[in-house]
Every structure is written in C-alpha cells, then in structure tokens.
Amino acid sequence: MRTHRYETSVAWAADGQGTKSYRSYSRNFTITARGKADIAGSSDPAFHGDAARYDPEELLVASLSSCHMLWYLHLCSVNGITVLDYRDNATGTMEVGDNSGQFVKAELRPKITIARGGDSARALALHEEAHRLCFIARSVNFPIDLEAEIAEE
Asked: How many CB atoms lie within 10 A of CB 57?
C-alpha cells in the first residue's frame, strides 16, 4: 500500500486582546500550502466569523464535491464518455447542541453535460462508482446523498 502525505499550515494571530473573552478574538485565519495561493478562513458567521472568508464547514462540503467530481471525470475519460460541463451545488447539514456539533449528511447534486451520442445511462451509473472511490467520502462518518442529472449537448 502506498502512503500519501498532505501538509498545510493554519495560522492565526491575536488582534487586540487575543482570547481574553469569547467575543474579543478574531476567528480569521489563513490556510497555506507550499507553492499555492492562501485561503482566507474564518468560522461560520453563526460563530462570530467573517462571512467573506471560507469556513471549515464549507471547505468540508467543497472537498466532498470536488473529490467526487475528479473521480467522476476520471471514470468518464476511461469509459469513453466525453464530459463537456460539470456543475455541483453541494450542501452539508450540521447539527449543533451541547456546545459542539457534527455533520449529519451531505448532498451532492451534480449536473453534467456530455457530448451528444454518449451513453447517458452509463454516465449516470458512473456516479455510484465515483462515490465508492472518493477518498473524502470514504473518510467521513455521515451519509452522502447523490442526485445526479445527465444532459447531452
């Protein structure tokens, strides 16, 4: 078995009083990885974060969606299906209580356009295989619902 290692850095610095009180500190942080653009992060605005920055919950949903997409595109390419466009409006649902929370489900709704004359039924079926292979989906402990649509151009 091969092992892949991923490295990122998350940096936060106090502005003003630091964590002197719950409302006194900034939730803003920066995610970096060598050779890549920074990602401006914060907590969800419901938890005193900056709505203009990505929050960890959005990044988790984006990770699920993009991992699925990349596996799907690979599977289509090796199965002779030409994908012309791929869009997904993914959602995640988190429940919070007792000062903590957890994701209870995610929903992927990819809308794919394939070249005319392609195998739409096979293109739709490949979503199940992409879901089974997706590294991120295999790593989470909540269900991921998948509602894909295929159109031909």
From this structure: 17
d(CA 110, CA 77): 17
Which residues lie below 8 Å from residue 34, measured CB to CB, with a gap of 6+?
Answer: 7
Edge-to-edge strand order for the sheet containing 144-146? 91-97, 100-108, 144-146
27 CB-side CA count, 13 A: 18
Which of 129, 113, 141 lies closest to 70 in space, CA to CA? 129
What pLDDT, in 10s, does the model give residues 70-128?
999 999 999 999 999 999 999 999 999 988 999 999 999 999 999 999 999 999 999 99
Q: What is the pTM of this model?
A: 0.92
Distance between CA atoms of residues 146 and 144, nearest Å = 6
Cα–Cα dist 51/48, whole Å: 9
Q: Above 90 in pLDDT, residue 51?
A: yes
